[in-house]
Design a protein that fits this description.
It contains 7 helices and no strands. By secondary structure, the chain is mostly helical.
Length: 129
């Protein structure tokens, strides 16, 4: 996985460190028992419902939550990664933000995207000279 974790337990421990949360606080936030969270950090297999709760608690809005749930299912061993099909977390965050824009605003975002891609192409051409 891109953040250097290979198990669900490692991911929970990383979230605790990043967010300054104890295992008890994570359990409360997720809506499961402390024993469940402690078990997951020690390698216990997660139930699919628990993974959904983790994604809901830490995943943000619609697309971001779905991307996180997908990642957690991989970490928990329920399925393998599909990098060609995966909705990355940064893309999911962007999709959630775009969801509230009107047509004019989306047009501006599209134009800005074309601008960024053009600038990257120009930068690549300069590097080759």
């Amino acid at each position: 996985m891109s953040d250097g974790v290979s198990t669900l337990g490692e991911w929970i421990q990383l979230k605790c460190a990043e967010d300054g949360l104890s295992l008890r606080q994570v359990a409360t936030k997720v809506g499961v028992s402390h024993q469940t969270i402690a078990g997951l950090t020690n390698g216990k297999k997660a139930l699919p419902q628990t993974i959904k709760k983790l994604a809901k608690a830490f995943g943000g809005d619609d697309h971001q939550r779905i991307a996180l749930e997908d990642k957690l299912l991989c970490l928990a061993g329920y399925r393998t990664e599909r990098p060609d099909e995966a909705l990355s977390e940064p893309l999911a965050r962007l999709l959630d933000k775009l969801n509230g824009l009107d047509a004019d605003q989306l047009g501006m975002v599209e134009q800005f995207t074309v601008f960024i891609m053009t600038m990257e192409t120009r930068g690549d051409n300069r590097d080759r000279k």
